[in-house]
Design a protein that fits this description.
mainly alpha; three-stranded parallel sheet; 6 helices; Dna Topoisomerase Vi A Subunit, Chain: A, domain 2; single chain
């Protein structure tokens, strides 16, 4: 774990933004229940939907016109799911937020590639600094 304090602060600010957007009504889409658990441990209280429980079409219906944040893993499967969800939401006139996902994973690089490991990673960093 070789993250510098500046990177940690950027990561914390991005996660704080995720928490705030969620509290304001944005729906977060992740891949599975362990991802939900990790985000809850980080303090996300709003609605989180696991894509493993729904078809992509069902997710679009559930979210409707609300703001949606796609937070899939930083691997081939997560990238493909993100791309498919962006296409489906966009076809209904909803532009999903993928910027938070991009920022999180660009800061942490290869240290963490799965959302489910994000909380543990943050807690370890907090003890480091």
């Amino acid at each position: 774990m070789k993250l510098k304090i500046e990177a940690y602060l950027k990561l914390k600010a991005t996660i704080d933004e995720l928490i705030e957007r969620s509290e304001e009504g944005a729906v977060i889409i992740v891949e599975g229940k362990n991802d939900i658990r990790s985000l809850r441990m980080l303090g996300v209280k709003g609605e989180i939907l696991a894509s493993s429980n729904y078809s992509n079409a069902e997710l679009v219906d559930l979210v409707g016109r609300r703001e949606v944040i796609i937070l899939t893993d930083w691997d081939k499967k997560g990238e493909a799911l993100k791309d498919d969800l962006v296409m489906k939401f966009s076809s209904w006139g909803v532009v999903p937020n993928v910027e938070i996902r991009r920022r999180i994973f660009s800061i942490i690089g290869r240290e963490v590639t799965e959302v489910e490991d994000l909380a543990d990673f943050m807690f370890k960093l907090e003890h480091q600094f």
